[in-house]
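Exercise (ungraded).
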Amino acid sequence: MTESDSAAQQPQQQQQQSQQDGDGSATSSAAAPSRRAVLGWGGAGFALGAAAAGGAVTAFGGSSDMVSAAASGASVPFHGEHQAGIASAVQDRLHFAAFDVKTKDREELIKLLKEWTVAARLMTAGLPVGEGGFGGLPEAPPDDTGEALGLKASRLTLTIGFGPGLFAKGRFGLEGKRPEALVDLELFPGDNLDPARSGGDLCVQACADDPQVAVHAIRQLARIGFGRTAMRWSQLGFGKTSSTTPDEQTPRNMMGFKDGTRNVSGTDKAALDKHVWVGAGDGSDWLTGGSYLVARRIRMNIETWDRTPLQEQEDIFGRDKGEGAPVGKSRERDEPFLKAMKPEAHVRLAHPDTNNGATILRRGYSFTDGTDGLGRLDAGLFFLAYQRDIRKGFIPIQRNLARSDVLNEYIQHVGSAVFAVPPGVRDKDDWWGRTLFA
Amino acid sequence: MRPARLTVIAAASVAAALTAVTGCSQKSDAGGDDAIKVAASDSACDVSKTEFPAGKVQIDVENKGSKVTEVYVLFPDARIVTERENIGPGTKASITAEIKAGDYEIVCKPGMKGDGISKKVKATGKGGAEEKRSPEMDAAVAAYRAYVVTQAEETLPKAQAFADAVKAGDVEGAKKLYAASRIGWERTEPVAESFGDIDPKVDVREDGLEAGQDLEKDWTGWHRLEKALWVDNKIGDREKQLADTLIADLTDWQKKVGQAEITPTSIANGAKELLDEVATGKVTGEEERYSHTDLVDFKANVEGAQKAFELLKPIAAKNDPELVKQLDTQFAALNTLLDKYRADQATYEFTSYEKVGEPERKELSDGVNALAEPLSKLAAAVTK
């Protein structure tokens, strides 16, 4: 924390350093330019973006998959072996968007992905897209919508995923490249899925410390995509519900409980390789270094939950509410003794030991989308899970939960989507999906 | 319809009107030899001089023909400097106007219809000349103005037929004529909106009234009659009165459109605004909430935008051929999508929007976004 903390407190110094290190030798933690400062340099803005991104490669291109929890405002490297936004430290805000691809032309789709990559590279470095938000032709709308001007990179990560529809026969010639592990999920007991909140040919997960930065990023990509993609649905999230940095407190969900204490750590390379990253021999070479994402919108019956007695709440989860300790233990991170819990307790059913070791990396967020027509909070958990194989990750766990979890009385899955998440963008010549379309 | 909004085409009709000092019908007496004499007949428009000093100019018109005529002085982009209508056969009229240095046309319109007969004239000397534009820009503006004028002219008889049905108390007949009476208006709405006062009179929706306005008294125009026809299913005295008011307001519009300030940029942005109209009011079904004829308006908006684009295309193609290609593609795609909702492409009989489901509305909305986003770059491509 300390190194990046102090870096973030001296943004001016950082910018100067980045400027001097125009050859790309700037370290990643130094690349936290404020948008306003960058704009002030006029034409130098783009050059700095490239330098900062180049520097990121230097710092990130090694064997470590870890991105340390940087101070708010810093930038997370866009280039690397894996996409940022999976194992990297979880930011507090989310804008997740699923798109339908409207173009039928493979080349158009490739062009779009290249344009998106360029925009993503700029935005994750804290820079506006294209010619920026102002100062261009007065007759034309600005390239960048401008609501993130003056805001820092805010650890923005943009992570792309490819949905099953993209691999459909007769569409883009990708039918032979659909990974076996990208399965269409079965309908689990209790699912009440809304097609308008499910599916999508493409997804982009934008995470940042500042919600405006995350929303801005999705908005720019949607705009660049118009005519080629159309937004299918999107979800705002706040208050991360899980952490990839175990040194931090496990955040609480909307039910007031700590959940996901056993999440995969972003620094645990062995666990990531075993459970999260697609390996070289897994079947789809283009996806090596990538992952699979399952997104579920889980609505919580907040009002009835709030009327549930404390003891019952704690029994349902299998943890105490104050400390988050498993039943019979005193500290949150104490190893749970599953047999001490009720047979249908949530933690017991979700635990790898109950699921033959099935492990997923969770990156979910709380959401509150106002109220429904009945005055009930439309709130819950926007569940995001990354894994090496959906058939060995999410599915067995969810089968178990959907069948027996006592929590089901208080939750309902209302949206669902799966995506193959390609490996990272290696350098400034690389682009999202290159290996798929090669 | 967008209440209380400044359009790109500014309310410049006021400025244009100021240029024309007066158009009185008094007999020529002050002009003497300085006056430009126009001899109008059924087939000729003879002008006594084609060059005259800029400043206050008097034009003496004599109608020697057998038809009622009208005489215009036009800027190169066809905007009206001044005009005089209803000059009867055998009568004289005098027009006085402040004319700056530059090129103009004097046009006689025997029968007050059609393009008329025009003569090029030049005002010379002091007096700030009109800002010079390229001839192709002037041509685009002139052609767009002609389009707008034609749309207004063609709308009036259709609106009259609708108004007549209302006045006859014929609910079903009026319903059938309603949507068609709006097409010309919808095609050229950004220009109509530039005259701030007409749009709120003819196209305001129930929720568009401002605070302090009375729904009974102040709500006029198409949508007020739409509600009477589709919701109340009856026509009373008030509705018959409002039918006349609608015609009076549309006549006012028809008179003003020729004077609207139109530039290549405003044509381009007007096209985008037409798509914005679709995006905010039509795809949601808000515009025609009682009649559900939104797709007719939708089609008309797209047609108006496409006309603007086609006129600017030669200019835009030089500066941004990629954009032109993209717009061609997206216009075609949206038109194809719209055609799914009418059995016969020769008519404007579109599916009731009530019967268009959510997924289809989403598809239409996506199509509008796909076109409107590149269309927003047309103005820049024209001015580059």
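Further reading is listed at the end of the chapter. For now, observe: Residues 82 and 424 of chain A are 4 Å apart (CA to CA). Chain A touches chain B at residues 100, 102, 137, 139-141, 196, 223, 226-228, 230 (CB under 8 Å).
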